[in-house]
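Our consortium's second objective concerns turning raw sequence data into structural hypotheses that experimental partners can test. To show how far this objective has progressed, the report includes one record in full. It was chosen at random from the queue rather than selected for favorable results. The single chain below, 88 residues long, was entered without modification.
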Amino acid sequence: MSSLAHGNNTLEVEVTNISTHGIWLLAHDKELFIPYDKFPWFKDQAVKSIINVEEQSPGHFYWPDLDVDLTEEIIKHPARFPLNAKNT
C-alpha cells in the first residue's frame, strides 16, 4: 500500500488591500489592519512578498519571503507586544 504525499497544511488567508498606511488581511471572515508604524517590516516591500502569506495555524500568519510571523493577538493589540524591529 502506498500513501499519497500531503501538501502544506495552510489555512486560507488573503491580503485584500495594501495602502500607504498599512495592509489589510482577511482571515476567517475577519479583516485585520496591519499599520506600517507598528509593523515596519512590511513598508517598502514588494507587493508579491506582502501577498505571499500563509496561516500556519488558526490566527498565526507567516510571510516566508519576509521571514515575518505574527499572531492575530499581536496584530490586534500591538501595545501588549512592545518589541519592534529597528529599520536598518
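The partners drew two points from this record. The longest helix spans residues 47-51. Helices lie at 47-51, 72-76. Both points have been shared with the crystallography group to help prioritize constructs.
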